[in-house]
Amino acid sequence: MSHPEIEGPPMLLAELNWPRVAALSKDTPVIIPVAALEQHGHHMPVFTDSMLLGEVVRRAHERLGDKVLVAPLMWLGNSHHHMDFAGTMSATPRTYLDLLCDMMENMIFHGFKRIVIINGHGGNDVPGKQAVFEVRQRHRQRNDLCLLFATYWLLGGKPHEVDPSMTQIGWVTPANGKLR
Question: Whole-model pTM?
Answer without folding.
Answer: 0.83
